[in-house]
Amino acid sequence: MEKDLNAPIQYIKGVGPHRASLLGRIGIKNLRDALFYLPYRYEDRRVFKKIALLRPDELVTVSGRILKADVISINPRLKILEVIISDGSALLKAKWFNQPYLKKNFKPGIDVIFYGPIKAGFRGAGVELQNPDYELAVEDEGDGGVSATHTGRIVPIYHSTEGLSQRQFRNIMNAVVSQYSAAVPDFMPNEIVSRYRFPNIAESLMNVHFPKPEIPVEDLNRGVTNYHRRLAFDELFTLQLGLALIKKDEASEKGITFAPDGRLASKLINKLPYTLTGAQQRVVKEILSDMRSSSPMHRLLQGDVGSGKTIVALISMLSAVECGYQAVIMAPTEILAEQHYLNIHRLVEELGLRIHLLTGSRKNKEYEAIASGQTNIVVGTHALIQESVVFAKLGLIVIDEQHRFGVMQRASLRKKGLNPDTLIMTATPIPRTLAMTLYGDLDYSVIDELPPNRTPIITKLLYESQKERIYRMLEDEVKKGGQAYVVYPVIEDSEKTTLKAAITGSEVLQKMFPKITVGLIHGRMKTAEREDIMRRFKEGVINILVSTTVIEVGVDVPNATLMVIIHAERFGLSQLHQLRGRVGRGGEQSFCVLLCYGYGEDSKRRLDVMVKTSDGFKIAEEDLEIRGPGEFFGTKQSGIPDLKVANLLRDGVLLEPARKEAFTLIENDPALIGFPALRSSIEGFWGSKIELFKTA
Distance from the CA of 612 to the CA of which of 60, 208, 254, 547 falls in 20 to 30 A? Predict the structure, then answer.
């Protein structure tokens, strides 16, 4: 009889409605959820110690025969169960507090195994065990379970939930694994299983939950046994199959075949005061090759801060405009959209084209000019996806810092054209493993070269007691003709927080340096006011710009040589890296000062990484390690299914082969006619997200 893995967990022996609701809190609703809810660590409880050799503060496994079991009432609120055992070398007392009902388990004459912490006895007399895990010699016999579940073996430890002890949890998992692991369909094609010498799925599940004694505990705890690798590979393979299907589907769509002669792009390149780097030229070629194809382009353009992504995007947009289409660039915030507009509108207008900025707060919407096709390029925020915005002939979409957009927003923008080409830009360096997961259906371009004459930025970590040094540095930079940013975590002082605030900071600096012009910019200001302040800073009228993180992305002031980040311990790594990238854009030596007001372990690691390296990819790898994949990139809203088993840090080496196998399989059998079990596995894993995830 086939076993239904979608059956509710409640009907497993020892669960019931109450425990089922507790398990539901941690995502275990059915048998399949339980099977793939893996231990997070393992304890080796196989080495038995003689009672006579026990010392306080040890974690030990001991075995012996029960001599007596008594419940002692200390007072109405405290009852202690005391069980005394002997192993022939000495006696040992085990105690449980306020669990008198356990007494029925401990009958004199029965052999028992205990595992737990050894404590000094009452008033220092001898040693005892407190609340140990236990296993009775008769327990688990005849129910098909593992004979020892909690002691005398390598024992799995699970992330549990309040109301369910490890012991109860382990008993439930033992029942599920022993009865149902053989029912999990092994959908992986046989040739892949044998190519990588993987064990079968049932064997893998059994040994990940209740390992065989010969498996090294270190490998189990690192999650690198062949059984762990098999389960991780399955999950990554299923993920990549979904991405391969999406990519195949996108390739079959009819897109726009652009055939630009390069007239506008050449005019733009000739006007630039610098030469494109080799990396920029290479990426432009990759993008134009996509645009000339009849399938819609879906390309990710990645480049560190200051690598020149915007100009590459502009060349792409001009190529679309030259062919009679409109191009749009969508940014996640008004200030970033404004920066893009300010950086490119002059260049665009000099070429005789019309560009328009569209954000929520702008009064002048110019919908008609966009709908009639008079506007060639539109720069905007998510205001672009409103129903009222209609394009005459949308050919190219550029999405900046796209991880800040939901999948639906990207899809809505694509629907405003007929399968337009899509170029997605990010200055957040993404480790390759994460890029292949989040953007597995995209082609991938990297600008891995900074413009020449860039002097590496010197980063210093200073503390509150060293503030005088910062004031001197600010004064020195301005005297030398440079400019500085001072970034605060919040706009104004508040009773709810002790964080230093931008408004107060700008007032203090202005009083301290009366002959220096201090400006202030933050997100609550009107767009026109922000534009005016940025223009004055760019022109050198403002010497020190105090700001919040609104200047994190896209601001380009070559004369800015000093970045001071107040409460640096409160910022994330990629944020710190983005902020630092605002300086060092001219030929002068630039500095970044991280002012720290105390930190925890993670913030210390982040700040150390910033001082040690300016390589965006190294920083991203560290960030991924510190925060973990889910947090790192907001994968929760990216549309991608959650990975329950695979860990992108640990299992990154499996991602490339899983991807290769998945893409080859879809190439040879797009409908998976030869692999029906695999098809249903993809549907189960992706659910409705397979539609959602079509990158827009």
Answer: 547
Which tens digits make up the pLDDT trace of 633-691?
444 445 566 778 888 778 888 988 999 999 999 999 988 888 888 888 888 887 765 55
Label each residue of 61-84 as H, E or C. Answer: EEEEEEEEEEEEEEECCEEEEEEE
Q: Give start and end residues of each alpha helix (H) in 453-572.
A: 467-479, 502-512, 527-538
**CATH 2.40.50.140 intervals, the chain:** 47-152
In the chain, ranges of CATH 3.40.50.300 domains: 223-452+646-696, 458-613
The pair of three-digit structure tokens given for residue 243, joined into one six-digit string: 């991405």
535: left (phi over 0), alpha (psi -120 to 50) or beta: alpha
From the number of C-beta atoms within 10 Å of its C-beta (0-12, 13-18, 19+), residue 310 rates as buried
Closest C-alpha among 286, 337, 280 to residue 303: 280
User: How many residues are recorded in the chain?
Assistant: 696
Instruction: Give the residue among 17, 44, 184 at the shortest CA–CA distance from 115.
Output: 44
Give the number of other CB atoms < 10 A from CB of residue 352.
Answer: 9
Q: What CATH number is given for 458-613 in this structure? A: 3.40.50.300
Question: Domain 223-452+646-696: which CATH class?
Answer: alpha beta
The answer to pTM > 0.90 is no
Return contacts of 372-378, CB within 8 angstroms, 24+ apart. Answer: 373/326, 375/326, 376/321, 376/326, 376/327, 376/348, 377/317, 377/321, 377/326, 377/327, 377/328, 377/329, 377/344, 377/348, 377/353, 378/326, 378/327, 378/328, 378/329
Round the CA-based radius of gyration of the chain to a whole number and report it.
31
The pLDDT of residue 189 is: 93
- Residue 584's φ and ψ, nearest 5 degrees, are 80, 25
How many whole angstroms separate alpha carbon 434 and alpha carbon 305? Answer: 19
Can you list the positions of beta strands (E) in 87-152?
91-97, 111-120, 127-130, 133-136
Which residues of the chain register pLDDT less than 50? 1, 139-146, 633-637, 692-696
Amino acid (one-letter) located at 27 = G
Pairing relationship of beta strands 560-566 and 483-487 according to DSSP bridges = parallel
User: Cα–Cα distances in Å, from 621 out to 431, 613, 645?
Assistant: 6, 12, 20
**CA–CA separation, 139 and 169 (whole Å):** 16
Residue 60, classed as helix, strand or coil, is: strand
Pick the CATH number of 47-152 from 3.40.50.12780, 2.60.40.1930, 2.40.50.140, 2.40.37.10: 2.40.50.140
User: Quick check: helix, strand or coil at residue 176?
Assistant: helix
127, 131, 135, 136 alpha-carbon torsion, rounded to 10°: 80
Distance (Å) of CA 345 to CA 74, 393, 534, 552, 555:
82, 20, 15, 21, 15
Dig out the tokens for 507 from the structure: 């007032």
* CA pair distance 12, 5, nearest whole angstrom: 12
